[in-house]
Amino acid sequence: PQRLLAQSKQIVISNWGGDWNDRTVKYIEAPLLEQKGYTIVRDLNTAPQRRTKIVAEKRLPRGSLDVAHVPISDAYFLNVNEAIDLIEFAKIPNAVDLLEQVKTPYFLPWLYSTWEIVYNPQKIKDAPTSLAELWNPKYVGRVGVTNQHYQDYIQMASLLATGKLHEFDAAKKKLLELKAVNKPKVYESHQQIAVGFKDGEIWIACNYRARALQFQADGLPVNVSFPKEGAALQTFGAVIPKRPPNKQGAYAYLNALLDPQALAALCQVNFYSPASNKVTLPGALGAKISHTAEQRKKLIAPDLAYLAQNDAAQLEWWTKEFV
Hints:
Shape: globular
Number of strands: 11
Number of helices: 13
Strand content: 15-25%
Structural class: alpha/beta
Radius of gyration: 20 Å
């Protein structure tokens, strides 16, 4: 009985590392769970590693994870592969205020942002209005890309070339042009590309609006600009893998993710938009994070089925041909 009691207070969470995890701990896990007696065991890795692990464990008598943080596209992939549970939203009191537009039966939405142009205003005086600026020859050697966002860059290139997110052949051609013309510097993560901006190695890139605002808050010389072509919408959240060790703990964790006060505090430092209608962000900061009515008309939701079917091929191409 003592061992079972100890197990019921342990929750195993798979998440990204870096400042994403640091903020999750500071605003959610530590105050709302650990200070109430839960023990959080953290399995930190990349999204592809997380997907692989969850699928590999789906037929085990007992999985190793209670909750995994994922983008919505990975949640779709995992659901298609029957590797995650449907979520019983009635067990999550805070879920009553979720945005219906990003809610699915197998995925708890938490935060969302859009893929936009990030640039150094000290080097680029006029705000870029088009994704095509990344191909401008005057920025040779000054363009940055991140490996972990290969899908986002492929979608960006497709959008520029065709007006649609998922024309892979057109995107490949466009990205190879970028590689030939501007010789972009490749970084592994948000943190590394931030250093690239700070040191003046790069002047222009694409990233989530939320990350650009974080870079600004950290004192980096960057602005963010909404591209006239539109912006892909990216939603982050959590799933419950099959046969978790502590399903009760998993639901306690999901409810904590949507705590209105904690989520409001988190969004004011990570600059993502909250997926809960109950969260209000103040004044000028809320205006920075939110989109105008005109921009909302140009938000483009990815085709999750397409991403699930083509992710492996896109990652292989990106790794072998682009990087």
